[in-house]
Amino acid sequence: MRLLLIADADSIHTRRWVSSLSQRGCEILLFNLLRCDCSFYDGMPHVQVYSCDFVLDEAAAGSQRIAAKLIYLKAVKHLRRQIRRFRPDLLHAHNASSCGLVGALSCFHPFLLSVWGSDVYTFPRQGKLYNHLLRFALRRADGVLSTSHCMARETNKYTAKPIQVTPFGVDMNRFAPIAAPSKPATFVVGNVKALKYCYGIDTLIRAFALVCRRNSGKDMRLLIAGTGPDRADFEQLCDQLAVRDRVEFLGFIPNDELPSLYAQFDVAVSLSREESFGVVAVEAMSCQCPVVTSDAEGFQEVVADGVTGFVVPKDNAQAAAAAIQKFIDDPQLRQTMGEAGRRRVAERYDWEQNVDTMLKIYRV
Q1: Residues 282-319: pLDDT tens digits?
Q2: Other C-beta atoms within 10 Å of 343: how many?
Q3: Which CATH superfamily is domain 2-169+350-363 in?
Q4: Distance CA 247, CA 224 (A)
Q5: How far is it, in rounded angstroms, from Cα 325 to Cα 218?
């Protein structure tokens, strides 16, 4: 099968799909819009990469102004040229508000469109024109895919088409429990997420400060992995709450190093204000690390409350602190909930099964 994928070549999501599909024997042309380092794909069998190398004005992108989207229209002629050259069996665009729009304008069929999150949760709410563009892309698609049921429901606000759910799970051979023989007696709370306000890092820091006060004699650490524009604000909050000496900002951690990081956590805590799927919770559970998450829709779908972890209300540091405290009061919870979490991932989010699901959709 010859697949032309329109996607962000720099995204870990794109890299995993392309790598796995190529290993299954698919011939792939990855069509990338914006300038980025595409060297990850060098030497990958059955994979070609074409990049338009466009540069998007960051201020325009951040404000979601329509000017930030006009650059994508320039990609259509490039895409049509690559379609004629590559002659794909199928065109699959990832992210409706950018790649999906380009794919829709190419007029190629069959055309599949995967929604990613902000393209259906945020983009159409910016104004009538954005709403119209999303509906246009969805209307042109022969099939619409979503990584979660909650995002599928959100997408159905803009199209009556059935949405096929294709979970973005984890490689359970890589994301597996690792013994941590050097793990100290310190109680470690961990987080892996971009350092942005929408992901509730501030709520996490406030919750951690509450737990520290309740356990003044206990050695505790908060490890925060990730980069983002709000790091300075979060560091300042740590200073204000007098926990700066207990919080470590680790910066970017490569995906293949995350299992070792999860092994250090007593509990992984993600308190996002919005979440369309919750892959960080899936990764943690696959590593047999229990979780505390907010009740953002994506987490509610992924986490079995009281079984694989605890789900607490958004923006509620007190509730999050109470959930973390349960792991301090009952250390056995880490093992029992961790084991339950890995079983849940095996049932629903095993990456090899997810790839099988995608291939079945391609072959219909």
Answers
A1: 999 999 999 999 999 999 999 999 999 999 999 999 99
A2: 15
A3: Glycogen Phosphorylase B; (3.40.50.2000)
A4: 8
A5: 12
Distances, alpha carbon 266 to alpha carbons 220, 223, 231, 251, 328, in Å: 10, 11, 23, 20, 9
Residues 6 or more apart in contact with residue 283 via CB below 8 angstroms? 170, 175, 192, 258, 262
- Domain 187-348: assigned CATH number: 3.40.50.2000
Question: What is the per-residue pLDDT for 65?
Answer: 57
Q: How far apart are CA 238 and CA 242, in angstroms?
A: 6
How far CA 292 is from CA of 36, 344, 347, 354, in Å, comes to: 34, 15, 20, 25
**293: phi then psi, degrees, rounded to nearest 5:** -130, 165
- CB within 8 Å of 149: residues ≥ 6 apart: 165, 301
Q: How many residues does this entry show for the chain?
A: 364
> What is the residue-averaged pLDDT of the chain?
94
Residue 53's H or E segment, with its range, is strand 47-54
Amino acid at 64: Q
Beta-strand pair 143-146/111-114 = parallel
Q: Any idea which of 67-81, 138-152, 220-234 has the lowest mean pLDDT? A: 67-81
Give the bridge partners for 113, in sequence order.
Answer: 93, 144
Give the lowest-confidence range in 90-104, 111-125, 173-187, 337-351.
173-187
**Rounded Cα distance, 25 and 39, in Å:** 21
Comma-separated ranges of CATH 3.40.50.2000 domains in the chain:
2-169+350-363, 187-348
Rounded to the nearest 10 degrees, how much is the dihedral formed by the CA atoms of 127, 33, 226, 123?
Answer: 10
User: What is the spatial order of strands in the sheet that 309-312 belongs to?
Assistant: 247-251, 220-225, 187-192, 267-270, 291-294, 309-312
User: CA angle, corner 224, sides to 7 and 263, nearest 5?
Assistant: 90
Alpha carbon distances (Å) from 350 to 78, 117, 346, 353: 36, 21, 5, 5
